[in-house]
Amino acid sequence: MSRRSRAREVALQILFEDDVNPRATVKETEHFLSSRLKSPKLEEFCMSLILGVRRNQQELDELLSKTAENWSLSRMAATDRNVLRLGAYEILYSDTPARAAINEAVELAKRFGNAQSAQFVNGILDKFLHRKES
Questions:
Q1: According to the 3-state scheme, what is the secondary structure of 79-96?
Q2: Which of 133, 117, 97 is nearest to 12 (CA)?
Q3: Where are the domains of the chain?
Q4: Could you say which of 36, 70, 73, 96 has the lowest number of CB atoms within 10 Å?
Q5: Considering only the top CATH level, what class is 3-133?
Q6: What b-and-e string marks burial along 75-105, b requiring 16 or more CB atoms within 10 Å of the CB?
Q7: Is the pLDDT confidence value at 131 over 70?
């Protein structure tokens, strides 16, 4: 696993916690990141993902809801929902190439989701990318 992939994994863990049991303070989040990543550069990358998703969550959720026809975000598994938010954020706002962002999201879905999560995430983010490009 690449180091940036590990940072995405840690970001997903924080975003998942935000979603299902919000309580972490900035200090707790920073401690969690430093204990898991042990690299200031990776901690900075991870924190940029977390803060970016948090800052843009309403917009990301609206765009994902439009893309995921027949699926409301509230009906999605919390893991899938947060992988999608993270992937959509990277597609829209980061310097990560869009296809790489999708691949990273699919890998997170394989690791943390259920048997169908990877296909679900891939399909929605691929459609999301095509909507963005048109």
A1: HHHHHHHHHHHHHHHCCC
A2: 117
A3: 3-133
A4: 70
A5: mainly alpha
A6: ebebbbbbbbbbbbbbbbbeebebeebbbbb
A7: yes
